[in-house]
Amino acid sequence: MQYAVEMKNVKKIYDSGLGEQKKPALDNLNLSILKGSIFGLLGPNGAGKSTAINILAGLTKKTGGTVIVWGNNQDLYPQKAKACLGVVPQELNLDPFLTPREALEVQAGLFGIKKVGRRTDEILRKVGLHSVSNAYARTLSGGMRRRLLMAKALVHNPPLLILDEPTA
Q: How many Å is the Cα radius of gyration of the chain?
């Protein structure tokens, strides 16, 4: 298993549901990313970058093709494929009434990590949020909120990290 990600002939066609022509977002995307590499996906707005990431993360259903994440075929082993990914989304999707500590604890729970195995303090230190770990997310600066999204993506120690619009 040498690839972190393999996408073979991946298609995504959106249907407006209004009888209009169906719109292809991805048309036979083929992508292989070696383990241990840093990879950037560039293109203009509407090129399908976020669609590809959402398919890879299992958030959007593909119309066709094969997706393999860290050796796990997404169609055969969807939970294993998802567990190999940490995704930092393009949009801020934080609960403003949770503290960074609480947000990481909730995220760890969603991944089924028992309290004894959680690395909340370690992750908060690594992303520079330990000093504000008990402040509400709504009081954090924009940069701190971005770091909190990164921390949430790292909570289950995934071998693969995906950043959607990392320079936002």
A: 17
What is the mean pLDDT, run by run of 10 residues, along the chain of 168 residues? 92 81 88 93 88 92 96 95 92 92 96 94 97 96 94 96 83
The reported pTM is 0.86
**Helices 100-110, 142-154: inter-axial angle, 10-degree rounding:** 30
Q: Which residues pair with 164 in a beta bridge?
A: none
Token output for 51? 């669609």
- pLDDT value at position 143? 92
Give first-to-last CA distance, the chain, whole Å: 33
What is the three-class DSSP state of 105? Answer: helix
CA distances from 100 to 73, 85, 93, 113 (A): 33, 20, 13, 17
User: What pLDDT was estimated at residue 90?
Assistant: 84
Asked if 139 contacts 65 with a C-beta cutoff of 8 angstroms, the reply is no
- Region of 128 please: left (phi>0), alpha (psi -120 to 50) or beta: left
